[in-house]
């Protein structure tokens, strides 16, 4: 298991993650390491000695400027392009077994932008490409 893009955790969540030994990559670490390097390490961790992995992607990991229709918007999340890069890397791994995109709240969305982005991200994770 890997948690990617962490940026707003309460004290108990921090303790649980540390105790669990799960790979946890904060947005600060993504900024320091570079996006591709951070994503590569997460994909490597979840594919080591496994048949593959399931991806649960919280849309509130994306910056609210890009995905306004979420219940817990926190500034400083993934950009539109960064979210796509992650999904492209997931597809390229060839190890995706399942995916869910969660934390979309239509009553808070603006012109269905978050739901549309979620659908496009799912397609990208499943291998949809421009070329």
Name some characteristics of this structure.
Arginase, Chain A, 17% strand, two-stranded parallel ribbon, 131 residues, 4 strands
In short:
With 131 residues, the chain is an alpha/beta fold. It has helices at residues 11-20, 27-33, 35-47, 80-93, 113-125, and strands spanning 2-6, 23-26, 53-58, 96-102.
What does this structure look like?
- By secondary structure, the protein is an alpha/beta fold.
- It has one domain (about 1-125): 3-Layer(aba) Sandwich (Arginase, Chain A).
- About 45% of the residues lie in helices and about 15% in strands.
- The protein has 5 helices and 4 strands; from the N terminus they run βαβααβαβα.
- It has a two-stranded parallel ribbon with strand order 1-2. The chain has a two-stranded parallel ribbon with strand order 3-4.
- Helix 1 (about 10-20) links the parallel strand 1 and strand 2 (about 25).
- The longest helix is centred in the middle third of the chain and has 14 residues, at about 80-95.
- The termini are far apart.
Summarize the helices and strands and which ones pair or pack.
Layout: E1 2-6, H1 11-20, E2 23-26, H2 27-33, H3 35-47, E3 53-58, H4 80-93, E4 96-102, H5 113-125
Parallel strand pairs: 1-2, 3-4
Helix pairs in contact: 2-3, 3-4, 4-5
């Amino acid at each position: 298991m890997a948690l990617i893009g962490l940026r707003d955790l309460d004290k108990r969540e921090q303790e649980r993650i540390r105790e669990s030994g799960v790979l946890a990559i904060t947005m600060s670490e993504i900024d320091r390491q570079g996006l591709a390097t951070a994503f590569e390490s997460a994909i490597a961790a979840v594919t080591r000695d496994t048949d593959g992995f399931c991806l649960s992607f919280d849309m509130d990991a994306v910056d609210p400027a890009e995905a306004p229709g979420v219940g817990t918007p926190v500034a400083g999340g993934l950009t539109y392009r960064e979210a796509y890069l992650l999904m492209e890397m997931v597809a390229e791994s060839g190890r995706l077994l399942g995916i869910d995109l969660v934390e979309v709240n239509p009553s808070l969305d603006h012109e269905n932008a978050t739901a549309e982005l979620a659908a496009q991200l799912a397609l990208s994770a499943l291998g949809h490409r421009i070329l």
